[in-house]
Each structure stands twice: as structure tokens, then as C-alpha cells.
């Protein structure tokens, strides 16, 4: 049996220190997972149950060690950066206990949840889905994966984003409201998680707009940094 169109390419992430690749299945993103960011978005930072949205896997943009062009998307005049720790799953299942959740993590990467904020804000006002705001082409820049077998499971450490050398976001992974293990456990009550799934684990405060011609540098302790030039 032949496909009636050319098969779309499978999205796969590079792995630090290896020529191997990590094929991506689904991309889950948690919202408002740092208290200060929840406040700046007008929400209550108390430990209410986490909520998630999704990006298409082909919205990811793989970023190497060199500065990488990042295309400013159409239909927005307010395009925001959100730096995040990304967890990549090598295992899965349903109703995963918190105590064993990290056993399912292959590794971690630096990611950005780029957002057409004006479209997201309009969708919120109209009680509509966020897809037009969150799922633009290339809206998930992501660096190389670092295997947990080599770096462990980051639970604390600096997470920052600078624009043209000016630090706009600065936080610590320890400030997450819901830990990576708790996110995996909670999400697995709604979906059967699978190898290849990614979880963008939330962003610290300081999110804001980026413009064409500006350079973003995102960094997480133990994972290096990624650099994007907005074009």
C-alpha cells in the first residue's frame, strides 16, 4: 500500500554528545507554573490544579550551538518569549505515580514557548481555544536534549532569557509550583503518555515582546544556552 501524498517528515531532536536522534510524538505545555509569572498574567499563584495546552510537533524549531534565525510569524504585532525547561519522555503510561514519574524521563532541553500574545488575549476574552496564539509555525524553538543518565533530573538552577544582552526573564527551576514529576503524574491521568512525548514545564516571570532584528539567548543551568535571531 502506497501513501497518496509524500509522508511528512518525523520531527526529531538532536542529543547532546551523540549522533542519535529523539523522535517526537506529542508536545504538552503547562500554563502558569511559576508564581511570579502567574501574577504577571493576572492569575492566582496558589497551587490550583495545573492546566495544559498543546503545540503541534512540527511547530518545534531545532536550535543548534550556533545562532539560529527565527521567523517572526504573521498576524501578530505582540510576539512574546517564554523560556522553559523541556522534559522528554522515554516511557509512559496512565496514572503514573509521582514517586516513579521521573523514571520515564529520557532527558531535558531548553525550550521557548513563543506566543502571539495579542491573538491569545483575544481568544481568552472570547472564551476560544489558544491555538492561533500558541501554535504558530516555529513557535517551539528547542535545543539539544541532555540525557538524564548524564545530568540527572534538574530540580533547581538558573533559568534566564536575554534580549540583545538585556536579561528579561530570570528565575530558578526550584520556583516551579508543580514539579516535573507532578506534571507527568497529573497529565497521565488525562492522557496515556508515550515515548517521544515532550512537556514544556512552564516559564518564570518577565515574559515580553521580541521584535525583528533582536537576538534572544535562553539559558538553563546544566543545559547551556541557545541563541535565536528574530528575522
TrEMBL record:
Protein origin, superkingdom: Bacteria
InterPro entries: Fumarylacetoacetase-like_C, Fumarylacetoacetase_C_sf
Keywords: Hydrolase, Metal-binding, Pyruvate
GO MF, any single term: metal ion binding
Keyword Isomerase attributed: no
Record flagged with keyword Cell membrane: no
Domain Fumarylacetoacetase-like C-terminal: from-to ranges: 27-230
Protein name from the UniProt record: Fumarylpyruvate hydrolase
Source organism phylogeny: Bacteria, Pseudomonadati, Pseudomonadota, Alphaproteobacteria, Hyphomicrobiales
